[in-house]
Amino acid sequence: MSANSVTSIKEAIKFAEANDAKMIDLKFLDFPGTWQHLTIPAHRLDEELFEQGMGIDGSSMRGWQSIAASDMQVRPDPTTARMDPITKLPTLSFICNVFDPITDQPYSRDPRYIAQKAENHLKETGIADTAFVGPEAEFFIFDDVRYDVTPYSSFYAVDSQEGAWNTGRNEGPNLGYKLGYKRGYFPVPPYDSLSDLRGEMAMTLEKAGIVVDVHHHEVATAGQSEIGIKYNSLLKSADDLQWFKYIIKNVARRHQKTVTFMPKPIHGDNGSGMHTHFSLWKGGKPLFPGERYAGLSDTALHFIAGILDHAPSLLAFTNPTTNSFKRLVPGYEAPIKLAYSSRNRSSAVRIPMVQSSPASKRIEFRTPDPSSNGYLAFAAILMAGLDGIERQLDPGDPVDKNIYNLPPVEADKIPSAPASLEEALACLVEDHDYLLRGDVFTEDVIESWINYKFENEIEPTRLRPTPLEYKLYFDI
């Protein structure tokens, strides 16, 4: 029995026995989307664990309960059973759903529950029964990272043996092979010094049951990389993305390296995006191929129109950090204009044309980045696209030119993405009814997300001086 074939509690227990699991790890997400976990001995794995779960302090989780109502439960989903490829002891991992022990209902701010509701809502609309999602999460592999923020000082410093800034460093000896800025796309070793490490990451992902499509160096200097994984249904793809981040970080640490999914860790070079591929299927048949532009159906074009129409508010979930908007600037391949096109990587939505099979027809939303919570981001994208289908929105004409090089008169006619997280959140305040349909997102979730982002990210960023401001203004 493979992990992907586990469908019931009894099968999950048998899977643990067959793999001689010594420990059971229960993983769950906080509101922003970072995995948390607790571990119990394997002898505690029984049917009651799946039904009653384990108690946790919800007030200690970011964006969750107040201390006056802190008791919560995490209940393992048996279908998520996977042997953890990182731990020394044989450990069976489950991803958990979060429940309120008083009402015995799923917790409204559990991101995984929101993704589950999105899938259910899709079926209830009758438009489709499955949304397939394929995220391409880019990341940097650094040799060293240091940072600190105090009331009287702040700094960050990252380093990589590949870094363009290290051509003159005394490495005893320095052998060269440093990747220049924007010169990192597809070089072979020795310039690509991380090929073997990414290969180990890929094999570890496959050991966990995640199918890898490709791995390669990305555009930026200093170890920017990508490992492509196979698409999956919306909820499973979000689960896979959590495993992806967990495995990539831990394999890097084995080699005394560190990984960041921060969208823009280096000034002056490309940031890390998470181009997200979407397609809708019904009854085993794809709904996006057709006879319209780029081989798309009307359904696909309406889906694109929904994404573009709601993009300003959508970015509050797909690009949810202040750092996200340091990537969304001209000159670094990040799409800042809300247009669509085939093959054109300067548009926010691209229709890949590399395959002719109808089953491969999909749209690629290029704006998201890997700082996002996959469950919330994928659910929000789906809800925006469904709104476009239900309202039969028209995406307008495609833009088949390099948007970065358009004359200002033409460029100004194309709507732009928000320029800051604060602006995206303001758009979310004004435009979120499409997210509430089917009770997928709730007013509580929207309000809590906005408040959390303002209180914990926007306000602290706004209030603190930066090293650059000292350089600009100290001797003013």
Q: What do you see in this structure?
A:
With 476 residues, the chain is an alpha+beta fold. The protein folds into 2 domains: 21-107, Roll (Ubiquitin-like (UB roll)); 130-473, Glutamine synthetase/guanido kinase, catalytic domain (Creatine Kinase, Chain A, domain 2). The protein is 32% helix and 21% strand. The chain is built from 13 helices and 19 strands. Strands 8, 11, 12, 13, 14, 15, 16, 17, 18 and 19 form a 10-stranded mixed β-sheet that branches. A hairpin with a 2-residue loop joins strand 15 (274-282) and strand 16 (285-286). The protein is globular. The chain starts with 8 loop residues before the first helix and ends with a helix.
Features:
single chain; 476 residues; alpha+beta; Ubiquitin-like (UB roll); Creatine Kinase, Chain A, domain 2; 2 domains; ten-stranded mixed beta sheet; seven-stranded mixed beta sheet
